[in-house]
Amino acid sequence: MTHTDESVLSAVGVSAGYGSGSRSRSVLHDVNVAVPRGGTMGIVGESGSGKSTLAQVLVGRLTPTRGVVRLDGTDVRRLSRRERFAARRRIQLVPQDPYSSLDPRMSVERTLAEAIDPRGRLRAGAHRERITELLESVALDGSAAKRLPHEFSGGQRQRIVIARALAVRPEVIIADEVTSSLDTSVQAEILELLLDLRERLGLTYVFITHDLAIAQYMCTDLSVLYLGTVVEQGTTDVLTRPAHPYTELLRDSRPDPSGRSTPAAAGGLATEDAADPASPPSGCVFHPRCRYGPRTHEDRTRCAVEPPNLADLLPSRERRAACHYPIKAVIQDEEGP
Q: What are the GO BP annotations of this UniProt entry (predicted)?
């Protein structure tokens, strides 16, 4: 997970934001993410953590202010115009709201035809076989091609958006909260569809979600974002045995099986709201909400002054945390008795 030479897509030292001059707003700060080929990299974190901004950077819709995005190890900025066009087609985004991403005046057939042939070089009807194939791949009948978006349910519209992403035969799908607007039963259907497509088509996913249960079910690797900074990375084991206090806070705050939210205080953590992403705290960005470093160690100012590096907890393990005082139980478990 941490080795970019094995990754199809990676962000290296990426900082990004919106606006310019006095109205600029920084969102991502020195983010490093490597997406393993054929796997699913989950991006988790609270609202405002920078998850969707990272998606926009990875798909090429937002240019980083610093750092690079690499595809197969190559900086995409060094590609020619033609190569950049081809690279964009290899990475496709499935957005959160399927209805707002579909033109309500366009039939499904026209939507998919434009995705297949955006320059309209082929004659009308030349794409019918491919359109039927795409619809069937997402478990929709070919007759759906003639209908408009409003004639479908939310789950069916999400299937259409997935079919549109598949139209150019991409290698990487960036799924940004793709089930958050769907009913629970429909969520399960979409997740199963995505898993099936990953196996059948050999896809690689970047899966952005606030739902830790879904992340644990869908993902092979995880990156935890807080205020635009990666604070922990590893396999899905990150969520069951966190090394960073923020990951522990996420784990302890998720709903229990009865549907009630478990108070973060049960995990011994402060429950203050996150700071403004555009003006993160000095030092460790999580230190105002954390009890471990600032309140229990002799050097009480370190967390407030010195930003921690995202570092391997153990040289032989693919677990990284940006914390001066990572949760000791995790390290002890890794080291053994």
A: peptide transport; transmembrane transport
Both structure tokens of 92: 């496709």
CA pair distance 286, 271, nearest whole angstrom: 11
Query: What stretches of the chain adopt beta strand conformation (E)?
Result: 7-18, 25-36, 40-44, 66-71, 74-75, 91-94, 172-176, 204-209, 221-226, 229-235, 311-312, 320-321
Number of structural domains the chain divides into: 2
Q: What's the confidence (pLDDT) of residue 328? A: 67
**pLDDT at residue 336 tops 70:** no
Q: Which of 143, 214, 151, 146 is nearest to 180 (CA)?
A: 214
Q: Which of 118-132, 177-191, 212-226, 286-300 has the lowest mean pLDDT?
A: 286-300
Residues 242, 284: Cα–Cα separation, whole Å: 17
Those residues whose C-beta lies under 8 Å from the C-beta of residue 107, and which sit 6 or more positions away, are 145, 146, 147, 148
Q: What is the pLDDT of residues 48-77, one digit of tens each?
A: 899 999 999 999 999 999 999 999 999 998
DSSP 261: B
Indicate if 183 and 320 belong to the same structural domain: no
Identify whether 237 is part of a domain.
no
Task: Please provide the distance, in angstroms rounded to a whole number, between the alpha carbons at the two ends of the chain.
Answer: 26
- Here the CATH number for the domain that contains residue 40 is 3.40.50.300
* pTM exceeding 0.90: no
Helix residue ranges per DSSP H, 28-153: 51-59, 81-90, 108-116, 128-137
| Contact (Cβ atoms closer than 8 angstroms) between residue 173 and residue 94 | yes
Quick check: is 185 in a domain?
yes
